[in-house]
Design goal:
Order of helices and strands of chain A: HHHHHHEHEEHEHHEH
Distance between the termini of chain B: 40 Å
CATH superfamily of chain B: Mog1/PsbP, alpha/beta/alpha sandwich
Strand content of chain A: 15-25%
Shape of chain B: globular
Oligomer: heterodimer
Radius of gyration of chain A: 31 Å
Largest sheet of chain B: 7 strands, antiparallel
Helix content of chain A: 40-55%
Radius of gyration of chain B: 16 Å
CATH class of chain B: Alpha Beta
Number of strands of chain A: 5
CATH topology of chain B: Protein Transport Mog1p, Chain A
Largest interface: A-B, 14 and 25 residues
Strand order of the largest sheet of chain A: 2-3-5-1-4
Order of helices and strands of chain B: HEEEHEEEEH
Largest sheet of chain A: 5 strands, mixed
CATH architecture of chain B: 3-Layer(aba) Sandwich
Chain lengths: ~280, ~150
């Protein structure tokens, strides 16, 4: 009876280990850093940097990691599959497991005394924040700002005039990004295997069939690469729509002090223009 | 007989004006009325003498301040120099934009008990020094008249 009980416990323990090792075999491209709790824009922005620092994760700046990265990823994944590295309790894994991919979007309406001047100031501010102008329709501007400085930019924009409307939204695309990365890695593996099979194929019929499949897989890889690049861009740069409109009400007149004209009418006649005209 | 009277009347009317001054060197008279005398130089510089009846308590300082305010604050001229001219007046030397060029515009204000004269000179930079002498000599003549 004791032996049976011991065997059952051993089997359970082994099963658990196997599950852990399976988890640790996931490509490192699945791992995301956990910032935990409330997340600020400054956390999200450097998405590109943190991603670059990770070995095989698709880079947001270059889009998707190339083949060499994928191989490095595989080796890293294998290395990390040892029990001590793969333990979920391990601090490094906990920090890399859940980085969020968040797209920030802002919609602002600012009342100003001179909308044209405010638009120009906004463009200068965009340059200062290392962002860029996406589109402009008179005094309606769509600008892209590095996500790290999204809130700073909005705060500075508030100083332009009276902000009457401010809508800020965010969209978490972590799951889509993870899904795409996973599919990408699977397809890269499939492409490797197909290439190996193609090298061994002897019959024309087989060769054609493998090449057809290889073309399909390559096409799919390119499509996913594009989508990852697109998502990375959306995460790295927040989109802000700003509308400057003419503000009415008390104007802050900053010109020279208004003076009362001379009470003696004929004095106004003296002028170089009248002198030469006569 | 009638012709003789008309002739005498004409001479009298001419002499009656307040701006009977001989043109200074380099200027010729182009227009003259009882209150305005206009002189021009060959280089298109111009002098205009305007006579007005002075008001009670109208000191040279009062008129100079009034003119300075009008020309600098309301017309945007740049005052370069303000000098007192003898006991009866002031000279305001200014720069004035005219036809996209910077002209000299100098105004002399002379006030006596009953008369007020405003003498203006407008000219280009190159000829200002020469014309200023003529302008000042004219002011001297007017000063003698009202002092």
């Amino acid at each position: 009876m004791r032996i049976i009980l011991l065997l059952t416990l051993l089997a359970t323990a082994l099963g658990g280990c196997a599950k852990r090792s399976e988890m640790s075999h996931r490509p490192s491209s699945y791992r995301y850093r956990n910032y935990g709790g409330a997340r600020t824009a400054s956390d999200s922005a450097p998405a590109s940097k943190s991603m670059e620092s990770e070995e095989a994760r698709p880079s947001p700046t270059t889009g998707v990691s190339e083949r060499s990265d994928y191989r490095a990823d595989k080796t890293t994944a294998t290395k990390k599959s040892t029990p001590e590295n793969s333990a979920p309790e391990s601090k490094s894994d906990r920090t890399t497991l859940q980085q969020r991919m968040i797209i920030y979007h802002g919609d602002l309406s600012v009342g100003v005394f001179d909308p044209e001047k405010a638009s120009k100031r906004c463009l200068t501010l965009t340059e200062k924040y290392k962002g860029y102008l996406k589109s402009r329709d008179n005094n309606y501007l769509v600008v892209r700002i590095p996500a790290a400085r999204f809130f700073d930019f909005i705060q500075e924009l508030e100083g332009f005039g009276k902000m009457t409307s401010r809508r800020v939204s965010s969209e978490d695309i972590t799951s889509q990004f993870v899904d795409l990365s996973m599919r990408m890695n699977n397809l890269l593996g499939a492409r490797d295997r197909l290439t190996a099979i193609l090298a061994k194929a002897t019959k024309v019929k087989d060769t054609l069939a493998i090449e057809k499949e290889l073309t399909r897989v390559t096409g799919e890889i390119e499509r996913i690469k594009g989508m990852l690049r697109y998502y990375s861009n959306l995460v790295s740069f927040a989109t802000i729509n700003v509308r400057f409109y003419m503000r009415h009400g008390t104007s802050s007149y900053k010109g020279p002090a208004i003076k009362i004209q001379t009470p003696i009418e004929w004095i106004r006649y003296f002028d170089i223009v009248t002198l030469f005209r006569n | 007989m009638m012709k003789k009277y008309i002739f005498i009347l004409a001479i009298f009317a001419g002499a009656c004006g307040h701006v009977n001054f001989d043109p200074p060197k380099g200027f010729v008279e182009t227009q003259k009325s009882s209150t305005i005398l206009r002189l021009v130089a060959a280089d298109a510089s111009a002098i205009r003498v305007t006579h007005r009846e002075n008001k009670k308590n109208g000191s040279p300082s009062f008129w100079a301040t009034l003119m300075e305010r009008e020309l600098t604050e309301f017309k945007g001229y740049k005052l370069e120099k303000k000098t007192k001219f003898k006991s009866t007046g002031f000279v305001l030397e200014m720069r004035a934009p005219y036809k996209h060029k910077n002209f000299h515009y100098t105004v002399g204000i002379l006030a006596g008990d009953d008369d007020l004269y405003i003498v203006e000179l407008g000219c280009e930079n190159a000829v200002y020094a020469a014309h200023k002498k003529s302008f000042m000599s004219l002011l001297g003549k007017i000063h003698k008249e009202i002092d």
